[in-house]
Automatic annotation (TrEMBL):
GO terms for cellular component: cytosol. SMART domains: CSP. Transmembrane segments: none annotated. PANTHER family: DIS3-LIKE EXONUCLEASE 2, RIBONUCLEASE. GO terms for biological process: mRNA catabolic process. SUPFAM superfamilies: Nucleic acid-binding proteins. Residues 90-152 form the Cold-shock domain. This is Ribonuclease R. Keywords: Exonuclease, Hydrolase, Nuclease. GO terms for molecular function: exonuclease activity; nucleic acid binding.
């Protein structure tokens, strides 16, 4: 038995936030550390000297929130325990094209401490998920295996892949081979995608042991072999910003088709010359050009390479 209100250093904070406060997360963690053994909810309720339905419900919600955030683990005996006491690890899932994966402990660089996740553990897990895991043994090759205790944070990134349609059923195969799932796409969430199109999807349901993952198309990029498609896939896979900020859009809208007089000062006007750009069709800018003309008095061709000063129109904001 303990007077949790007098011992909890965060009791005042909890009293300000809740009408019928329960011990803080910090105090519950400290209490379980001191107890040295896992405890069920009823035992905790009694040991913390709580009373009444409101505080029981408050404790239940607090413990559930701590489970969700990986601060506590719910054991098979329905007790609450500290993850480090059960040799739990937090880490990120690394998928493999063959369906299994690894969990790399948080903060670790390199694969020396990775634990293998068997195929059945990866059924509803996606490469990039942040999980709480526990070592479960070793595989046939002597590698440490782990089981997923809880997904602490699902992969937030969108997935780029190929859209397929077979016998009326649509699914997407991820371009990233570390995501081995075929993700089903309901008819109402296809956005007009056609067979073989490259699309961007969001996973809407992780599924379960008997039902696969489902998702929805949020963007159709086009045909797989379309020019520049590799770039579009890379931009979305690695979340590279590809949309102009609102400030830039506003600045572009203010530009005139006619060259302003102040831009001509200190420059030679060559707009009448037959300039030819040397930038390729897929270039991101067209600021390089050549101009050639024959010289009668001199054998051969005289030429110039010209470059436009884009900084005249794109001002750096400080």
């Amino acid at each position: 038995m303990t007077d949790s209100k007098s011992l909890d250093p965060h009791a005042d904070r909890e009293a300000k936030n809740y009408e019928n406060p329960v011990p803080s997360r910090e105090f519950i963690l400290s209490f379980l550390e001191s107890a040295g053994v896992p405890m069920n909810r009823n035992d905790l309720f009694t040991a913390l000297e709580l009373a009444g339905e409101d505080q029981y419900e408050g404790l239940r919600r607090r413990l559930n929130a701590m489970l969700r955030d990986g601060q506590l683990v719910f054991t098979r005996r329905q007790c609450y325990a500290l993850p480090d006491k059960l040799e739990m690890i937090k880490g990120y899932v690394i998928g493999h094209k063959d369906g299994y994966g690894w969990v790399r402990p948080e903060g670790v660089i390199g694969k020396e401490q990775d634990l293998v996740l068997p195929f059945h553990q990866m059924r509803n897990i996606i490469h990039g998920d942040y999980v709480l895991a526990q070592q479960s043994g070793t595989d046939k090759r002597g590698r440490k295996e782990a089981r997923i205790v809880r997904v602490l944070e699902e992969r937030a990134m969108k997935i780029v892949g190929r859209f397929f349609l077979e016998f009326g059923h649509a699914y997407v195969v991820a371009d990233d081979s570390r995501i081995h799932h075929d993700i089903l796409i309901p008819k109402e969430h296809r956005m007009g995608a056609r067979m073989g199109n490259v699309v961007v999807i969001e996973v809407t349901d992780r599924g379960n042991r008997s039902r696969g993952m489902t998702g929805k198309v949020v963007e159709v990029l086009g045909e797989n072999l379309a020019p520049g498609m590799e770039t579009q896939i890379a931009i979305r896979t690695h979340q590279i910003p590809n949309e102009w900020p609102e400030e830039v859009t506003k600045q572009i809208a203010s530009l005139q088709e006619e060259v302003p007089e102040e831009a001509k000062k200190g420059r030679v006007d060559l707009r009448e010359l037959p300039l030819v750009t040397i930038d390729g069709e897929d270039a991101r800018d067209f600021d390089d050009a050549v101009y050639c003309e024959k010289k009668k008095a001199v054998a051969g061709v005289y030429g110039s390479l010209l470059r436009m000063s884009v900084t005249t129109y794109v001002q750096i904001q400080h």
